[in-house]
Amino acid sequence: MLVTKFGRRGTLVKSTVLVFVAGGLMGLSRHIGVPEMIIIGRFITGIHSVLYNLMARRRKVFLSLAVEQDRDSSLPTEPTPLPGECVVQRVVDIVQDAGISLSVVPMFLGEIAPKNLRGFLGLVPSIFICIGVFIAQILGLHEVLGKEEHWPLFLSLVVVPTFVQLMLLPWFPESPRYLLIEKHNIHATLNALRWYRAKTNIQAEVEEMQKEQRSLSSVRTVSVYELLRDRTVRWQVISVMVINMGMQLSGIDAIWFYTNDIFENAGISVSQVQYTTVGTGAIEVIAGLIGCFTIERVGRRPLLIGGFSFMGMCCAGITLSLVLQAHVPFMHYVSVICVVGIIAGFCIGPAGVPFLMTGELFKQSHRPSAYIVGGALNWLSNFTVGFVFPFLQMSAGAFCYLVFFGICVGVAAYIYFVIPETKNKTFVEISQMFASRNNCELEGEQLPITENLGLRMKNRYGAMEKKGKDEMYMWSDEWMG
């Protein structure tokens, strides 16, 4: 409704003001003496996240880093959280993570990136999430902003990254693939591609987008129900379910929940645990950077298979160390090493690659619904681990981590046998690789890819005309006319 009344840019400007209001409320709550302003501030931030989900992909990216850093920084600094604030905070977290950070940002970057850089740019969001967590851990130290009187200031820091993004992102064009396939705006598509690609020849890329558009039975975005019933993408949907559920069921949440207890059992004093936690944050960043800079060389499959396999080995190692630590003193340190190994293995591949592959396995019409399915299962699995793990730990004791060992090995095996490598593949080529497994053929016109691709359009008689490089801009004017 707001987008219809004010337009996308107008809604963007008006909704972004909410972030500054929210940050101000949270920052002034201590000085005014009204702690309920924290709840209001976080509620306003949640409204802002919902508004962004009503806009196009580019405009949804604005608060991805800002709210994520706000979420991570707020948790360790509130000594006596209000019940209402806890509820609102979790609602905001789900809207932000599932709607923006973990869905829209990888989708947007995957659509604007050339295929040889799609993996690198697809892992950038997970890198900045790790950096946000690391910065929040540093600022949350008792010597910095971890004291009770400083936490309102800590929460108000959300306005800093928001301001930076607000100043920079309006200068970026919308996704060219979104403009061409969904909006049919060739003029804006060419302008966006020239902006993103600089001096690179864009004819081949536009031809690849047109080929994807012709392969679609409908340009209309399919619903989640239609996605689940579509036999032509059956194995893609199953793969998205497996990797997104495996990401959360791998045991990473259980490790994060009980990291402090494991460190204390290893002999680290309570006063030093916070510094050890900061160290694990640094390991997350380093491991994420390793995955980001190697994904275009080794591919997606090795990072996922290696990451899940290494996490499974470390889960088995934690079980062994917990069983033997009463008899073998150095097993306390083995448990710490295994915790660090699980975190590193997770950040190298399983932390970011599932969101990247969710976009790669589908074409334009199915991609948004695929992210909805993946994000919903991701959060459902997260909730399941948080709810079930305490009971599992009470009943199975040290052997509870063997459950995660089995899940990690199972997911790694599924990826090895089912999911093909998508490195340097177009979205149409990836769909063709799944076509035989789905026992179907792609709909629409199948055109060969040649070395000298030209832009094509239908003339007034319905025939296909090929436009060369010199006629490209004339073609855009004809299309708009």
From TrEMBL:
> Per the UniProt record, which residue ranges are transmembrane?
12-32, 38-55, 120-139, 151-172, 237-258, 278-296, 303-324, 330-357, 369-392, 398-419
Q: Known InterPro entries for this protein? A: GLUT, MFS_dom, MFS_sugar_transport-like, MFS_trans_sf
Q: Which UniProt keywords apply?
A: Cell membrane, Membrane, Sugar transport, Transmembrane, Transmembrane helix, Transport
Catalysed transformations (reactions): D-fructose(out) = D-fructose(in)
Q: How does it sit in the membrane?
A: Multi-pass membrane protein
- Which GO biological-process labels does this protein carry? D-glucose import; dehydroascorbic acid transport; fructose import across plasma membrane
Compartment list: Cell membrane, Sarcolemma; Cell membrane
Q: What is this protein called?
A: Solute carrier family 2, facilitated glucose transporter member 5
Its lineage reads: Eukaryota, Metazoa, Chordata, Craniata, Vertebrata
